[in-house]
Amino acid sequence: MRPKVNKHYLGIDFGGTNFKFGVVDSEFNLKEFKIMSLGKLKDPRVSIVFIKDLVSDLSKKYKLMSIGFGLPGPVDFETGHIHYLVNLKNWRNIGWKKLMEQELKIPVFLDNDVNAATLAEYYLGSGRGCLNMMMVALGTGVGGGLILGGKIYRGASNVTAEIGHIPLSIKGPKCNCKGIACLESYIGNQNLLNYAYRILHKHPESVLSAVKKKKLIISLEDITDAAKAGDKFAIDFWNDVAEKLGQALVGVVNILNIEKIVIGGGVSAAGQFLFKPLRKFVRVRAMDIQAKNVKIVKAKFQNKAGIIGSALIAKYALEKRSF
Ligand SMILES: [Zn+2]
After folding, report:
1. Separation of 52 CA from ligand 1 center, angstroms?
2. How does residue 5 score in pLDDT terms, banded at 50, 70 and 90?
3. Is the pLDDT of residue 52 over 70?
4. pTM of the predicted protein model
5. Do the beta carbons of residue 261 and residue 134 sit within 8 Å?
6. Residue 199 Cα, ligand 1 centroid: separation in angstroms?
7. Which of 99, 92, 51 is nearest to 74 (CA)?
8. What is the pLDDT of residue 171?
9. Best label site of 83, 182, 231, 234, fewest CB within 10 Å?
10. 175 C-alpha vs ligand 1 centroid, how far in Å?
11. How far apart are the CA of 243 and the centre of ligand 1, in A?
């Protein structure tokens, strides 16, 4: 076997439904990537055993210097403490860094998963070359991460940039966060599909009506495909999504005067059908100077952002770099 001379870093993206891990070298080239369903790993005890085996296996092949975790919920980057994880009920008040370091004998760091994705895009992806950036992750939920003055902004208690919970109106659907008419209640993946179903029956002329008849369901990809084929219903649908997201982003742009907004997650696959009307909406509605200085771009790493960011946190924190 070749000697393990090169330094490597393990990034683990612990999502609400999937467990992803990746190994990168010092230049953040991805050497290994795997995605699996969370399944039994929802139980922290099962997770600990699994991660121990995983690290032991990977260590045969790579010289692992440190491990970074991206976790879905409020966690304390400084102390390595998990307050709780959203949608994973047994993960509450765990001194994860200390526990993992005892088990693995390798330095461990952790951060919120959207912060990890934000750092990946900022240092290595579509956010490079600016000082102030917002990441928007569009999925089941709508998450955000914020870089201000070249550093991740953590706020008073590590719960910043919750763009999904910006209210769009005084009245509207109730959100899990206690809020009313939150952005996420409109453009979270499932909410988008529910909305599409609600309005589709009024549009028998849309190709999506035929798709639904055939498959019984439609997906967001189907809506993008229909838009590509020139379907008016589908194009209007993405225009509507762009307006809702744009409404929240105008507030962000006016307040923060950021230079870049990086948009990732499944919905960003709608490409120009989302980005074109979104850019226009922000340009027209935001204050002139802020609007002129902000670029809205698609994320580079998509479903790998979390693991690359977690590995980046592992490396930078080990090197005591501030980020
Ligand atoms: Zn909310």
Report:
1. 36
2. confident
3. yes
4. 0.94
5. yes
6. 23
7. 92
8. 97
9. 83
10. 5
11. 18
User: Domain 128-299 - what CATH class?
Assistant: alpha beta
Q: How far is the CA of 290 from the centre of ligand 1 (A)?
A: 26
What is the 173 CA–ligand 1 centroid distance (Å)? 10
pLDDT of amino acid 2? 58
What pLDDT was estimated at residue 34? 97
Domain spans of the chain?
A: 7-118+304-318, 128-299
Give the distance (Å) from ligand 1 centre to CA of residue 178: 6
Give the CATH fold of the 7-118+304-318 domain: Nucleotidyltransferase; domain 5 (3.30.420)
4 has pLDDT over 80? no
Both structure tokens of 90:
């047994």
User: Do 7-118+304-318 and 128-299 share a fold?
Assistant: yes
Q: Give the model confidence (pLDDT) of 95-152 as tens digits.
A: 999 999 999 999 999 999 999 999 999 999 999 999 999 999 998 889 999 999 999 9
